[in-house]
Amino acid sequence: MTEAEIYAVLTQVFRDVFDDDEIVLDSGTTAEDIAGWDSQAHVNLVVAAEMKFGVRFRTAELESLHNVGEFVQLIAGKHKGG
Amino acid sequence: MEQLAWLPAHADLAAAISAAKRIDNPADRLSQAMHLAGFRHDFTAIGRLDKLAADGLAEAAASSRPMAAGLAACRLAILSSHTVDHLVPAIRVAGLRRGLAVSVHAAPYGLYRQALLGEDPMMAAFAPQLVLLALDARDAPLDLPLESSEAAVTEAVTARVDELRHLWRQARARFNAQVMQQTLVPADPPLFGSFEALVPAAPNTVIGMLNAAIRVAAREEGVLLLDLALPAASYGQVMGLADPVRWHQAKQLVSPVLAPLYGDLVARVAAAVMGRSRKCLVLDLDNTLWGGVIGDDGIDGIKLGQGDATGEAFIAFQRYVALLGKRGIILAVCSKNDAAVAEAVFTQHPEMALRRGDIATFVANWNDKAGNLRQIAKTLNIGLDSLVFVDDNPAERDIIRRELPEVAVPELPEDVANYPARLAAAGYFEATGFTADDAARSRSYALNEARRVAQEQATDMDGYLRSLKMVLTATDVGPGELSRVTQLINKTNQFNLTTRRYTEAEVQALAANPAAVALALRLTDRFGDNGLICVVLARPDAALRSGELLIDTWLMSCRVLGRQVEAAVLEVLAAAASRRGVSTLIGEYRPTGRNGMVAEHYPNLGFVPLDPLPDSPEGTTCWQYDVIGGRAPKHFIELDAR
C-alpha cells in the first residue's frame, strides 16, 4: 500500500467516524483541526482504522499518536512488516 | 461469526446514509434512519445512523403526541463501572430497529452507587423507566486469598449480591424503574486451565459463582438480566468482546467493534419491557421446515428425519420451533402450496416434530405472501409488528421487507443446521417473564381455529356464543396472580385503555388498597382454557368525588375479542365496586397510536361522556357509568366470581 493509498482510506475512516464528508487530511492534521476529535472519538478512530486496514495497534503505540502523519506512518510500518 | 447476521446487507449503506443526511425534514430523516438501521452495519455506521435520527427523536420527544413513527419512548439510565459512552449510540440505533425511541442517561462510570444511594438530581430529573447496572469483574473484587475455602467464597459472594439487591430495591423505590443487571464477563484468563473451576477462589470460579448468585437473586427480586456472560462465552474468544487493549486505553469493557451487538442486546430487553417483543413466528414450508418441495417430491420424497444429514437438520429446526411454541410464541404457517397437500405432511409424515395442533393459523395457497401475512395478523388479532417471518427464499424475504416493513424477516444461513442459532441470535422473542399461561398459549391459539370452524357452522352469532359455554372466573389479584398480571399489564398494546405500565410492587400496592378493585379474569369455554385474559384495576383518585372510582387500567388479550367478554367484565367490576360503596365508575381512553381498537370501548358498554380529568394527555376521552342504573350490554358468559 502506498502512502497515498493509505491517506485515501484513512480519509474515508475519518469521514465515517466524524460523519463529515468534507474532511481532508494532511500529515499535520491534529485533534485541534477536527471538531469532535476527543478521547472517545480517538478510540473510535483507532478501532475503525484497525478494522479497515486489518492491523492491530499495540497499547504502547496508541499513546504516541498525535497527528495524522504519525497515524499513516504507523499503518505503513505494519503493512511493510506483513 | 458476524454481528447482526440476521439483518440483510445493504448494497452501499455509507452512501445511503450520506443521501439521507440531505433530507430536510427531521421526521423524514428519522424514518429513513429507522429503515437503514434494519440493515447489517458495523460500529462506524452506528454513529452516523444515530446522528441521522437525533433531530427527529428530539422533535418527537418534545411533543406530547404519541410518536408519529410508532416508536415507544423509553428512558434508560446506565449506571456502570466502566466506560459506556461509546455504546450509547448503538443502544439508540438498535432501539429504532426494535420500536423504541430510547433516551439514555449515562452516569459517570464508577459512580453507580452514588446514583442510587445518594441524592442525584440528574437521575431524579431524568426519571428512568429502566436502570441498567453495567458492572464488570474488575469492579469491587472480592480479594479472597487463592486458598480460601468454598464456604468463605460463598459468604463473600452472598455479601456482594446482597449489596446488589439493595441497589436494585433503591432503583425501584426511588425511580419506580425496572432494573436490568448485566452479568459479569470474565475479563482475565484462567490461572489453572481446566482445573480452574475446581479451585473455589480462582478468579473465573468466583465470577461464575457471582453470576449464578446474581441470576438467582434477579429471579427473586423481579430484576431482568442483560446476560452478557452468555454472548461473551460465544463471541468473547472469537471477536474480543472484552478487549484488554481497549480496557487499558479507555476503560471500555465492551470493545467498540462489538457495540452493534451490545446495543441490540440492551435494546431487545428494553423492547420486551416496553411490550415490543415479537409474538408470532410465521413459517414457510418447502425447504424451510423440510427439504424439497412437497407438491413435486411427495410425502415420501421430501427430506425429513433420520438417516439423512439434511433431513435430521430439518427435524432439529422443527424441534427448536416446537420449543418456541411451548414457551408461548404463536406459530403460524404461510406457504405457497396446495392446502390439503401441505397439511397432509403435518398429519401423515411420521417424522414431523411439529404437529398440526402446534400451528395456530395455517395459510397455504397461491396468493402473494404479503397479503397472507396481513391475513394471519388479522386472524390472530395481533399487529404486523408482532410477526417474524422465516422463509428460505431470498426473493420472498425481500418482497416482504419491502411490502411489510413492520414484519421482521431474518436473513437465513445457507445451511438449515444453523437456522436455530440464527433465530436465537436475532433475539426477537426476549421475555420479561415466563408463566404457565405462556406455556399454554400456543394450544389456546390453536383452539381458536376450532372455535372459528364452530362459528362458521353456526347459523347466528348468538347461537354460536351460547354454544361456546363460556365461563368467566374473576379473582382479586393476590400473590398467585401477581406475576402474570404484571406481565400482561406490561405487554398489552392493542386492547389497553390507558397503557399504564406497572411493576409487581406497584400492582401489589394497588391491590392491597381496600378501596381499590384489582381483578384478574380467566375465560374457559367448551374448547378449553384461554388462561388469564383480562386485567382491571380501579382505584380512588384525588381528582374524583367520593363514591367515584377511576378505572386506572382495563386491558384484555385479543385472543378473546368479539365474545362479549367486555360486558361480562363490566358486570363483575360493577358488582365489586358496589360492594365497596361506589356508585359511579369513571373510565378513560388514552390513545397511544396502537390502541385505536378500544377508542369506543366505553360508549359501547353504555358509559356516557364526561370532560377529561385535569392533566390528562392530549386526545384522552373520559366516561362515566352508573353502577346501580347502568345498563351493560347482554352477554352469554357465566360468571364465577371468587
Automatic annotation (TrEMBL), chain A:
Residues 1-79 form the Carrier domain. It comes from the Bacteria. This is Acyl carrier protein. It comes from Siccirubricoccus deserti.
UniProtKB/TrEMBL annotation, chain B:
InterPro entries: FkbH_domain (IPR010037), HAD-like_sf (IPR036412), HAD_sf (IPR023214), HAD_SF_ppase_IIIC (IPR010033), SGNH_hydro_sf (IPR036514). Coiled coil: none annotated. One of its GO terms (molecular function) is hydrolase activity, acting on ester bonds. This is HAD-IIIC family phosphatase. It comes from Siccirubricoccus deserti. The lineage of its organism: Bacteria, Pseudomonadati, Pseudomonadota, Alphaproteobacteria, Acetobacterales.
